[in-house]
Amino acid sequence: SNGITRPKGHKVSFHYNSQVEDMHFGKTHPMKPWRLTLTKHLVLAYGLQHTMETHLALPATSAQVQAFHDPDYVQFLSEVSPQTFKALCTQPRYQKFIPAKHDPPYDAVELGPFNLSTSPGADCPVFDGMSTYLFLYTGATLAATNQLLTSQSDIAISWSGGLHHAHKAEASGFCYINDIVLSILDLLHLFPRVLYIDIDVHHGDGVEEAFQRQPRVMTLSYHRYGPYDETGHRFFPGTGSLDDNGLKGTVGEHFALNVPIPSGIDDRQYKYLFESITSRAIDAYKPKAIVLQCGADSLGGDRLGQFNINIKQHGECVSFVKKQGLPLLILGGGGYTARNVARAWCHETALATDNGSNLPDKIPIDLIPRPQAFTGRAHGDGQLFPKFQRDHKNDCVDSELEMMVKRLEW
Ligand code: VJV
Ligand code: CA
Ligand code: ZN
Predict the structure, then answer these.
(1) Does any ligand 1 atom lie closer than 6 A to the CB of residue 163?
(2) Domain assignment present for 357
(3) What protein residues have CB closer than 5 angstroms to ion ligand 3?
(4) In a domain, 4, yes or no
């Protein structure tokens, strides 16, 4: 009735459990699970639930998580809470995971095993309900993956997933369980080659590392990368240079691609890089399935990001990948200016269901669940939030971007 239609010729499923919304990493921690509440409400307000299957996610099991992660780490994560943390830390089996000593600025927070901490400034804090949160976002991504494996969906969406920094036995950068690695391991049971694409502003280091010896997975990350700052650090996590191409001397060499980008990249420049490099990668690699991590911290105005990308261009990356017509898993990731995360991910949900141009700027009033929370404009017209959008110094030189594309041609 409001112009929203079902997609023609393909099936989309949306995997989510609202329980993840109630979690708090800490008072001023940048990661806000309630951005997922905003996303969900915007999706519902536009009636997009009628264009796809909505699946209530169940928690992943410890056995599923152990397909990638260390059993000791999984055990710890399944038991940890602010109440149990201290006692768990003293258990003998976890001693070898406690770092002896760490370098600044990491010494500002006291670290327990697995890079976990109860200090307020920690990247990976231990918080109330944390186990529930971790196993639920993983469960959502694995259910989405299963939809693709069984051909029940052509596109499966899991906005609470996409946590690309987690390692085998270590949390990193707000990520605890690497749902992406677990998903790709499942996809490899059926698909001979899987392409992973990561448009989060941060390097997808955890996924790249997990498959650095694996030619059946190609990882391709676009991210902010730059020189050392005054404090002796690079933009997090500091990896992902152009020369980082998979583990040298193994069959996995050449099956990781990295596109390091200076601050302030705009829509035109990002489109040029993304479309030329992604299409070359797909032509050469011929993947049978694609996993797309859609971190929204690459948007202009993000609290942590340093790009000037609009929602429209972010969405065009999704459309470009969708156009390939391969089984597609769409994941969330970073995104620290909550209202923009919701706008972007709702817009991309609409793109997945062929409703990209059907979202009016104003939400149909009778569909608004909580009127005061939104003022529409989910679809992005390239003019969103001008006062936030172009506030990063543009260090991107066209000729350098062009050279990068040339270097990545093979
Ligand atoms: O830059 C870092 C590491 C430090 C050490 C830890 N301190 C807290 C910050 C500097 C070197 N970490 C990054 C991690 C970014 C993770 C991005 C995750 C994703 O989007 O790629 C996928 C979901 C970082 N940048 C900013 C912060 N940490 C940060 C952490 C806080 C904070 C403010 C900024 C943690 C707690 C609080 N404030 C209260
Ligand atoms: Ca990235
Ligand atoms: Zn990020």
Answers:
(1) yes
(2) yes
(3) 200, 202, 295, 297, 334
(4) no
CA of residue 109 to ligand 1 center, whole Å: 12
Q: Specify the 3-state DSSP secondary structure of 42.
A: helix
Annotation says 314 is catalytic: no
pTM of the model: 0.94
- Region 123-137: mean pLDDT is 98
Q: How many whole angstroms from 335 Cα to the centroid of ligand 2?
A: 12
Cβ 28 under 6 angstroms from ligand 1: yes
CA of 246 to the centre of ligand 3 (A): 21
Look up the domain containing 384 and give its range: 12-54+128-408
Interval 149-182: pLDDT, tens? 999 999 999 999 999 999 999 999 999 999 999 9
State the Cα–Cα distance between residues 85 and 282, nearest whole angstrom: 45
Catalytic residue (choose from 15, 202, 203, 392): 203
Which residues in 145-280 belong to E strands, given as ranges?
Answer: 155-158, 194-198, 217-224, 256-261
Does any ligand 1 atom lie closer than 6 A to the CB of residue 333? yes
**Percentage, residues of the chain above pLDDT 90:** 86
Ligand nearest to the CA of 274: 2
Nearest CA to ligand 1 atom 21: 202
- Is the pLDDT at 184 greater than 80? The verdict is yes
Nearest-CA residue for atom 19 of ligand 1: 334
Q: What is the ipTM of this complex?
A: 0.98
Is pLDDT of 396 > 80? yes
At which residue do the structure tokens 């670290």 appear? 111
Domain total in the chain = 1
CATH number at residue 250: 3.40.800.20
User: Would you say residue 123 lies in a domain?
Assistant: no
Closest CA to 52 of 150, 155, 121, 204: 155
pLDDT band at 408 (very low <50, low <70, confident <90, very high): confident
Instruction: Check if the beta carbon of residue 382 is closer than 8 Å to that of residue 317.
Output: no
Nearest to 351 by CA among 10, 123, 62: 10
Residue 217 located in a structural domain: yes
